[in-house]
Amino acid sequence: MNNRVNYTLVGFLVLFGITLMLGFTYWLLKPTVENETTKYYIHFDESVLGLNIDSPVKYRGITVGKVTELKINPKNTAQVEVLITILKSTPIKSDTVAKLTSQGITGLSYINLSLGDNGAPPLVAKDGEKYPIIKTEPSFFERFEKSLGTVSTKLSKTLSGTEKLLNDENQKQMALILQRSAKFMDKMDRLLNEESIKHFQSSMKNLDSASKKLDVMMPKIDRFIDKSMAWEDKISGSFASIMNSYLGIRSAMDEIKRAVSSGEFNFKDIASDVVPTLNNTLLEMQQLMIKLEDTLNKYDRSPSDIIYKQESIKKGPGER
Amino acid sequence: MKYILVLLVVFVFSGCTTVVPPVTEYRVVAKKVDFNTNSKGCEEKILKVTQAFSSSTLMSQQMNYAQGKSKQYSYSQAQWSEPPNISVSAQILKQIRKSNIFKSVLNSKSRGKGDLVLEINIEDFMQYFNEDESKSYAVVTLDFTLVDAKSADTMASDTFSAKVDTVTLDAQGGVEALNEALEKVTKSSLKWLDGVCR
Fold first, then answer.
1. What are the phi and psi torsion angles at A4 (to 5°)?
2. Which residues of A touch B17 (CB under 8 A)?
3. Cβ neighbours of A279 in B, within 8 Å
4. In sequence order, what E strands does chain A have?
5. Which of its termini does chain B have fewer beta carbons within 10 Å around, N or C?
6. pTM for the structure as a whole
7. CA A131 to CA A67: how far, in whole Å?
8. What separation, in Å, do the N-terminal and C-terminal C-alpha atoms of chain A show?
């Protein structure tokens, strides 16, 4: 038997084996997906209670990554800066929003990413930013708390208003109104006694009767209106005729006016010739009338003088 | 037969007709009035004399006379040649024209327009007898009114009257007395016009 062991070889093999084991371990521990993931910052303005390192990051319910780091934002201490590592294949757009969501009743939370517009550009880091920052929206609890606060404020205001409304003076006024309402109702009750109701019923009957009479009258009124309209049409026609006559007279007057203005029809000239002649004629007619009256008076006294002169002649003084 | 009937009718009518005495016509003629005007106020004005207003008895040619207090008759053998209202107007116009008080004097029939108008109203122009016709006189009474032709305002107004006894108790005496009375009235009216125009 050959006891000659090559220790150098053995040592070499051992070292080689250890090296292989270390290499295998490193290979195992090495984050093989480093090249397939990407990192984003999320700045929450609310408490991230329930969110821990390695808390899942979901996209539409699918776990696409995890929380890598949690810390207070050194630039704004009111915010919590969360670093997430998610798969590169996750479609993070410029309008993608992160929302802190409670995971059932365990008190744990996860980050839910919602898809923005499919056509929006991918989210990229701005100048001075190490990783791109995903926008956030308040969680359900945050909104609930805010809503609760608003409701509380409104409720408080309402209560305050109610308190003001129900102060002593208003209570007195309300009591007065109620008292008066009670009196009014009492009066109404007395007013609406049996007799009043009978009267009311009687009035309603009369109204019904009047309505029936009105129904009978309406056709007559319609006929009257029809006749009135016909009469109105006739009157309108008459007025049109009068208007035409008026226009004719106006035209004639305009013509006369034009003739007078142009000297064709001068009243003064005509009158200067006619009036003296007429005056003389009238004077002569007057003389004639007087002679006629004398003659008639004469024959009125003795009609037979027309044929036979019978009236005796009264001789005047000095006449023979 | 026809000729016989015509002759018969002519005979009947001619035989029964009363013979009317002849009638003498008299004119109203006022004697020439001697009057010299002293006024200058109307020498540039034209006067128009209207036909005299009168009762209807003075508008006929019948010559009337009054007897006693209330009787009135007409002469059967005398009448006016034209109605007294016309002749009186004409005589007055003639005398005013001769007086030269006005630039011109127009009668009522003229087409000319006067600056002034003289209106004459004959109140009386008649011969009067007493009851037994033993005494007679004539009366002439005239109203004169001078009117501004443009404004129709009355400038002056007056009444003149004259009474003249007749020489004879007949129509001729009456006419002569009326003419003399008219002359007096005309003279008075000229003096009045002269005073108005002064």
1. -75, 105
2. 308-309
3. 108-109
4. 37-44, 56-59, 62-72, 80-87, 97-102, 109-114, 133-137
5. N
6. 0.48
7. 14
8. 238
CA A41 → CA A10, A67, A133, distances in Å? 52, 10, 5
Strands B24-26 and B71-80: parallel
Inter-CA distances, A247 with A149, A236, A261, Å: 86, 16, 20
CA distance B139 to B128: 8
* Cβ neighbours of B59 in A, within 8 Å: 286-287, 290
One-character DSSP codes across A300-311: HH-GGGGTS--S
Cβ under 8 Å to A: B residues 138-197: 168-173
Which tokens sit at A139? 């969680």
Q: pLDDT tens digits for B123-173? A: 999 999 999 889 999 999 999 999 999 999 999 999 999 999 999 999 999
CB B162 within 8 A of CB B119: no
Cα–Cα distance measured from residue A188 to residue A179, given in angstroms and rounded to the nearest whole number: 14
User: For chain A, how big is the Rg over CA atoms in Å?
Assistant: 64
Residues of chain B neighbouring A290 (CB-CB closer than 8 A): 56, 59-60, 83
**Does the CB of A307 have a partner CB in chain B at under 8 Å?**
yes
Q: In a mutagenesis test of the A interface, which of B59, B62, B73, B87 is the best target, namely the one with the most A β-carbons within 10 Å? A: B59
User: Are the Cβ atoms of A316 and B51 closer than 8 angstroms?
Assistant: no
Scan residues 50-109 of B and list those with Cβ closer than 8 Å to A.
51, 56, 59-60, 62, 65, 73-78, 83, 108-109
Here the tokens at position B162 are 């004259």
d(CA A90, CA A64): 7
The tens digit of pLDDT for each residue in A150-204 reads 888 888 898 988 888 888 888 888 899 999 999 999 888 888 888 888 888 899 9
Question: d(Cα B197, Cα B189) in Å, to the nearest integer?
Answer: 12
φ, ψ of residue B131 in degrees (nearest 5): -65, -40
What is the rounded distance in angstroms from the CA atom of residue A167 to the CA atom of residue A175?
A: 12
Nearest to A134 by CA among A181, A100, A103: A100
Q: How far is B143 from chain A (nearest CA, A)?
A: 21
- CB distance A134 to A92 below 8 Å: yes
Higher pLDDT, A146 or B152: B152
What domains are defined for chain B?
39-196 (3.40.50.10610)
Asked if the model's pLDDT at residue A33 lies above 60, the reply is no
